[in-house]
Write a structure and sequence with these properties.
The protein is an alpha+beta fold. The chain is built from 4 helices and 10 strands; from the N terminus they run H-E-E-E-E-H-E-H-E-E-E-E-H-E. It has a 6-stranded mixed β-sheet. A 4-stranded antiparallel β-sheet has the order 1-2-3-4.
Length: 157
Amino acid sequence: MEHFVKLQQSLDALFGIGSSKYLPKDIEIDFSRKTGRIRTVSHKGKLLCTLRINGSLAISIDFAQTLFQNKKFRDNCIEINNDAAPFVMQGRSVFCKHVVWCGKNIRVGADTPILFENQIIAIGKAILSSEMISDFERGVAVKVRDSLKSRNEEIVV
């Protein structure tokens, strides 16, 4: 199977049908020398995503913002309130009590984009499912792995 098609199918399976149409056509794919598998995907020098061993994708904030144009992709996101936003931008975890809205496709261990004012400010690993995040008032909902301030860039919110 062609690697571009494999990447498109992975995007559609993980983030909803139709999300692969936002994948740029002129991407550079890096392969592992030992296994020959796809390691990273980049576009014009910017990292889009990394393929994990289990078949999931570790997407970057820039790529998540691109995929956010798809309406079905929003079901994989959570939205946080004003109190938590500055801390999440610094790379801190998101707690259940700070979640304003939660998409229905969030599963335990899945990559979850974190929204604030319709902009993705961080990406993390979901500790709880969407039903649990909605029900609980205490505990960590998403453990952040990549945020805007961790990249030493100027933040425009």
